[in-house]
Write a structure and sequence with these properties.
Number of strands: 23
Number of domains: 2
CATH class of the largest domain: Alpha Beta
Bound molecules: nicotinamide-adenine-dinucleotide
Distance between the termini: 55 Å
Radius of gyration: 23 Å
CATH architecture of the largest domain: 3-Layer(aba) Sandwich
Pfam families: Aldedh (PF00171)
Keywords: Oxidoreductase
Helix content: 25-40%
Family: Belongs to the aldehyde dehydrogenase family.
Domain Aldehyde dehydrogenase: 25-483
Organism: Paracoccus acridae
Strand order of the largest sheet: 15-16-17-14-13-19-20
CATH topology of the largest domain: Aldehyde Dehydrogenase, Chain A, domain 1
Strand content: 15-25%
CATH superfamily of the largest domain: Aldehyde Dehydrogenase, Chain A, domain 1
Shape: globular
Length: 488
């Protein structure tokens, strides 16, 4: 059963169906309500998928995988291009769904949708570049082939903060390399995935290649990650869930790819362009209401420019426009995702106050009558051992610590459980290069905001994850190497 997307979202809330084996399947159990975090309005209901239904999705993906793998990669890429074209055709409606269910501002939701279409095309371009190797053997008259092959069936478990893009980050490299996939979106933001499935159903993609099952983590998610028919679990989300997934995967020895939390340091040296640093750090902290794994969550600034940087940041924080993105444009940020997210941010600021910091601006809920809003909050006087410098806050809160040298800043930046991204602002090439050499992170941004490119490699160290995504190296995470020895 296919429903036209143009009739889909803006009307009254409706019940959505999983997409399994090329069909929209009726739910057999409980339905989960999806609401707008800015207003509390009901947007729709999705199925709480049972273990038996998850099993059916994995079996469908397995049944489809053999024929899918046998297709020339360029044909698989053709299906991906059909999907990206559908996304472009419905770019405005898809962005609208993201605005409503995640609370993202409209301009950023549109960037997310457009970037997703580009990302699918980018991964399709790899079809003619999936390379193996030919080696000489140690034996006479023998040649070795290193063939790059798909892993089989992939499970993609998604978070809520970039819900639409993350479908593509899992699906596109999986499919172009010959895998099939079962996606479980976050129960907070699943509707964009259900509408994506409707668009995908209008393409010629063979049944069973892409499957979508909804539900909570501890039920549908658990059934998926524990399924013995999965060859790779690619997960983006919190450290706690990532750690749990790795333990469950251990039972079946399933390969995992984990993109987890962050606590990105930004280093500002005394020779930095302070206007640039303030603008980039402010943008990095309020984008998606601070709910981005990549973005600067702690600042180390040299003493000489501390006051000047704080002054500039204070102005920018106080000029930050926030509200309900489903009715207002021209905002910097919307609400936090839910009550738990709001409570976590409020608790982090309360603790920072108790531990002796100064709240320069913000530091409280933003009372807009409804929604999970928190004021953009700038904190000074932070020190290394404080919780606000060590734990992911995931909100519009920025703590600042004074340092006296680049060496001290690098040492403090590295002294963290997290190792996803980092940044430095300086006009000195030697300082920038020292930071690039010595920062122990997956990514370092020099004199720019933290936003990764699709041809890079997004990978966290320490508790920020295992493996990575994007580019050639991300693509190859979805493959295995098969060695063939040819005598003769
Ligand atoms: P989360 O870990 O709470 O949930 C992520 C997904 O895991 C959801 O789909 C959820 O239903 C599922 N899940 C929860 N428990 C499960 C279980 N027992 N078994 C199987 N699945 C389960 O994370 P979240 O709150 O949705 O996302 C925010 C987190 O994601 C932040 O920590 C953020 O830093 C991180 N994140 C990381 C990246 C990255 O690229 N490194 C990108 C985006 C978000």
């Amino acid at each position: 059963m296919t429903r036209k997307i143009s009739n889909g979202f803006s009307e009254k809330p409706q019940d959505y169906r999983n997409y399994v084996d090329g069909a929209f399947t009726a739910a057999s159990g409980e339905m989960i309500e999806v609401t707008n975090p800015a207003t509390g309005a009901l947007l729709g209901r999705i199925p709480e998928t049972s273990a038996a239904e998850v099993d059916a999705a994995v079996r469908a993906a397995r049944a489809a995988q053999g024929d899918w793998e046998k297709l020339p990669a360029i044909e698989r890429a053709g299906f991906l291009r059909q999907i990206s074209a559908k996304v472009r055709e419905h770019r405005v409606e898809l962005a609208d769904v993201i605005v409503k269910e995640q609370g993202k501002i409209r301009s950023l939701a549109q960037v997310e949708v457009d970037f997703t279409a580009d990302y699918i095309d980018y991964m399709a371009e790899w079809a003619r570049r999936i390379e193996g190797e030919v080696l000489t053997s140690d034996r006479p008259n023998e040649t070795m082939l290193l063939l790059r092959k798909p892993l089989g069936v992939v499970a993609g478990v998604l978070p809520w903060n970039f819900p639409f893009f993350l479908i593509a980050r899992k699906m596109a490299p999986a499919l172009v390399t010959g895998n099939t996939i079962v996606i479980k979106p976050s129960e907070e933001t699943p509707l964009n995935a259900y509408l994506f499935a409707e668009l995908l159903a209008e393409t010629d993609l063979p049944k069973g290649v892409f499957n979508l099952v909804g539900g909570r983590g501890r039920t549908a998610g658990e059934a998926l990650i524990a399924h013995p028919g999965i060859d790779l679990i690619t997960f983006t989300g919190s450290v706690a869930t990532g750690s749990h997934i790795m333990q469950v995967a251990g039972r079946n020895l399933t390969k995992v790819n984990l993109e987890l939390g962050g606590k990105a340091p930004a280093i500002v040296l005394k020779d930095a362009d302070l206007d640039l640093a303030a603008q980039a750090i402010h943008a990095s902290r309020v984008i998606n209401t601070g709910q981005v794994c990549n973005c600067a969550e702690r600042v180390y600034v040299e003493r000489e420019v501390h006051d000047a940087l704080v002054e500039k940041l204070k102005t920018l924080f106080e000029e930050t426009r926030y509200g309900d993105p489903s009715v207002e444009d021209d905002l910097h940020m919307g609400p936090l995702i839910n009550q738990a997210g709001l409570d976590k941010v409020a608790e982090a600021v309360k603790m920072a106050r108790q531990q002796g910091t100064t709240v320069v601006t913000g530091g409280d809920h933003a009372d807009l009558g409804q929604g999970f809003h928190y004021k953009p909050t700038l904190i000074t006087g932070a020190t290394a051992e404080m919780d606000i410098m060590r734990h992911e806050t995931f909100g519009p809160v920025l703590p600042i610590q004074i340092v006296d040298s680049l060496d001290e800043a690098i040492s403090l930046a590295n002294d963290s459980d997290y190792g996803l991204t980092s940044s430095i602002y300086t006009r000195d090439l030697n300082s920038a290069m020292q930071a690039a050499r010595e920062l122990k992170f997956g990514e370092t941004y020099i004199n720019r905001e933290n936003f990764e490119a699709m041809q890079g490699f997004h990978a966290g160290r320490r508790k920020s994850g295992i493996g990575g995504a994007d580019g050639k190296h991300g693509l190859y995470e979805f493959t295995t190497t098969h060695v063939v020895y040819i005598k003769g």
